[in-house]
Fold this protein.
Amino acid sequence: MVMATPQPASRASLPPLAVERTSRLIRQQRGRADALIEVLHQVQELYGYLPAAALAQVARELRLPLSRVHGVASFYHLFRLEAPTVHRCAVCLGTACFVKGGGELAERIEQRLGLRMDDAAGNGTWALEHVSCLGACGQAPVLVVDGQLEPRLPIDDPAALEARLDALGLSGAAP
């Protein structure tokens, strides 16, 4: 009986241009294993996340065990191993925002979007995450929706808050 030799992750699952750009990023770091975190940051910038095939390429070209590369990628909070959702909403739950209703705001958005806070997969369209502080304490409570700060949300005026959330596309229906 002949045993099949395990093959490395296929490059075919990645666009050829992206594979070449990843190789170039690694060459710019002179293939140094101690540049792993920097390489992973640049690869994530390229894809928007760290696909399994890209992790395998990085491991192969840096001559590191895939388990080490995956371990580093899964350890650090800033690395994503799943493709990001189309839209992202970050709710500030720092002291000032929390005191001014940030917790209630987070719950309301979870209900509206039908998802749980900090679930990277979200609902397919939206992902909702908490942040500890956005540095806009004087404008509390605040959100960041698709990279745009949304200050002074009217938590004490339900109708105005609902209208504002609707205007931001934060509803269960796809925007």
